[in-house]
Amino acid sequence: MPASRSARERKAAAEAGDLANVKIDVGGDGQFVYKISCRECTVKADRNWSAYRPGEDNGFMAAMDRWIFHLKEKHPNADAPCLAYLEAAQQRLHARREQRES
Ligand SMILES: [Zn+2]
Question: How far from each other are the two terminal CA atoms of the chain, in whole angstroms?
């Protein structure tokens, strides 16, 4: 049986760190939609910074990758468990770019 939405939400929130606000919605097709928004940039910007990605595990990875890049770019001093995946996230980004070019 797949993990419940709230359990996934807690796990993703733990990985994303203190600056992240993680919500999981269930899309019309029954898939989980991960929404990671930034608590700090929510306060400063008119529009919340957030990473929305539909899908099951791909959705999680894609949303978390965008979040990792956001942390790196805007909050270089922030610490979060997900930063351990920075290198993997960069490799995935690189692979997606190469796919688009070929
Ligand atoms: Zn931010």
Answer: 38
The answer to pTM > 0.85 is no
Distance CA 24, CA 81 (A): 19
Cα of 75 vs centre of ligand 1, distance in Å, is: 6
Give the burial string for 44-63 (b: 16+ CB within 10 Å, else e): eeeeebbbebbbeeebbbbb
Tokens of 51: 């990473």
Residue 1 CA to ligand 1 center (angstroms) comes to 34
pLDDT tens track for 77-93: 999 999 999 999 999 88
Q: What angle, rounded to 10 degrees, do the helices at 57-74 and 86-101 form?
A: 110
